[in-house]
Amino acid sequence: MNGTSSGHTIEPIVEKVMCIFNKLDFMKTRIFLLALFFISCLPIRSQGVAATTEYVKELTSNWQGERFDDGRPKVSDALLERLKKIQMEEAWGYLRNKGYNNQYDGDWEILHPDSVMTGRVLTAQYMPLRKDYQHLVKLKGAKEKRDTLGGSNSWPIEILRTGDVYVADGYGRVVDGTLIGSNLGNAIYANSNNGVIFNGGVRDVAGLMDIKGFNGWWRGQDPSYLQEEMLTGINTPIRIGRATVLPGDVVLANRHGIVFVPAHLVANLVLSSEVVALRDQFGFQRLREKTYTPGQIDTGWTDAIKSDFRDWLKKYPDNMLPMTRKELNDHLNAATN
């Protein structure tokens, strides 16, 4: 047959097939090059000092409520006030049960240890000074229309809102790592009516104590001023000791430590902890009355005790409840179902 099957050679057929494939490859190449051209024409936004609104929304995508224009969740003032009454162990335990095991840190110096502070987190990241990087930060800050005449440690302060807590990672540096003194402390309180949490140092503590309503948690105090340290990011994820902190988290800080609560968990954490407090109040009362033994109260409650607790709640004055009656009933019904 000599390479034929019906008296004709196959070479012309092969040539036609190869020609078709070559044309397809050429078309694919043209499409690919056109795509590269159009991509190169698109505006490219480089990383700035502050995180973009879109990035903050991605970081806090579980939050479904109102937001600030920088993308941070706007947890209500009412919830922030209720959170002040929650025990640290209750908040810590709730978060652990939800799988958030790295939201607490302790061992702080506190300006006013008897006070409790809650608020919405605005984060700042500081690093040891590097000349070329600091120059870039200054250029980026100028493009973002930030004040480049003074130090960049004022930039986070300038964008604080009422109810914010300025949370900064100064990598634990105290000597030459004093992020604020009394001047910046006054500016912080003027913008936020709140305080600070610094994984670093402060100076002029006597002046900070004179700011009525201001409070702070920090690693130490020193007379030195900030040097060999630079701001590198605003509203980016940071580490505070043992905790991972995102912009828009809600902080609970007291003499027992600090816990950072993801915004989408705040409402249920507060309500659940308030119900636990009511259970404790009921249990203490029944123990004083000798209605039940400590063993009965400390272990899983029987149906009879649960029913007694519900009857006790019905007689509880509405104006003394930490939550609304509807919130309480909805929570109890959800726990039963």
From TrEMBL:
> Can you say what this protein is called?
Demethylmenaquinone methyltransferase
GO process terms (BP): methylation
Q: Where does Mg(2+) bind?
A: 204
Q: Give UniProt keywords alphabetically.
A: Magnesium, Metal-binding, Methyltransferase, Transferase
Q: Which terms does the record give in the GO molecular function aspect?
A: metal ion binding; methyltransferase activity
User: Which residues are noted in the entry as substrate-binding?
Assistant: 181-184, 203
**What InterPro entries would the database entry show?**
RraA/RraA-like, RraA/RraA-like_sf
Q: Which organism is it from?
A: Pricia antarctica
Required co-factor(s) are: Mg(2+)
